[in-house]
Predict the structure.
Amino acid sequence: MKKISMQLEKANLKKTKHRLLILKILAETNDFLSADDLFIRAKQSDTKISLSTVYRILDSFAEKKIVSTLNIDNSKQVYYEMAHQEHAHHLICLDCQSVIHIKDCPIHDYQSQLSKTYNFQVKRHSLEFYGYCSKCQKSKKNQ
Amino acid sequence: MKKISMQLEKANLKKTKHRLLILKILAETNDFLSADDLFIRAKQSDTKISLSTVYRILDSFAEKKIVSTLNIDNSKQVYYEMAHQEHAHHLICLDCQSVIHIKDCPIHDYQSQLSKTYNFQVKRHSLEFYGYCSKCQKSKKNQ
DNA sequence: GTGTTTAATGCTAACCATTTGCATTTAGAC
DNA sequence: GTCTAAATGCAAATGGTTAGCATTAAACAC
Ligand SMILES: [Mn+2]
Ligand SMILES: [Mn+2]
Ligand SMILES: [Zn+2]
Ligand SMILES: [Zn+2]
């Protein structure tokens, strides 16, 4: 995967095997992952990685905007995904944690309107939808 | 404040002095408060309250929908406010933590449209705006 | 390739918001 | 007033995350 190591180059981060591995796992995964999820998956390829390394890698990735973070619902852990090119939002299944990525944003106009009304300089917003994916809706009916 | 003790009655919670006090502080405050914020304020009226009591009270309030919770940005602590009658959103100042409460929701139609498009049963959403309030915009210019 | 420099890593202990166990107190019902 | 279950205080435990420090490895010059 040339593309993956390119990202580190562009971000001015050393290409270590652990960084490449975490990046690969993130690239292969559609859903949000916690640091521990990533640690467990990484150990399957490389038994000699430590959890603090995973945290430090994720911190460096977040700083360089390679990943973006999310607090799923009110859980106390942080979840990570590969950052999107464009601003995006998510439908998150409360049952299976699967994620649908929504590439458009319905509130740009609303946001600039808010800015004027309240003289508040909006820097960013969070918008996430929680509910049940089609798969989980079905299995709930059957139980 | 009759209104306050009414809320406990309706929720079927015992009217203890600590619960009434926490409720009073929440009612007087416009912004979100952490458990520790509430603990500090409560101690000013009642030196004999413990932090775990504050947590337990907040848990009971959250369960009865007397308060609603928020994870401000990516901080690891939970913030609480008196729950709104109707669904609401917020403008949160990244500098002074002040909050503007927005009583309308711009995405109801969008949400039902999403539901159909993705066959995803949306149960709730979070929408919060982060930026700088008018006061903090000014003080940044002056510095 | 070797050597040098500096950032990355592993391991362990610390941190800090939150939760829990348990003995004691108190609200609400009688 | 008595009684009972729920609420509380205190201390210890939990769990995700961060920090300290000695060791290793990328990147770069030669
Ligand atoms: Mn996404
Ligand atoms: Mn509010
Ligand atoms: Zn699902
Ligand atoms: Zn402000």
Remarks:
- Chain A touches chain B through 34 residues (CB under 8 Å).
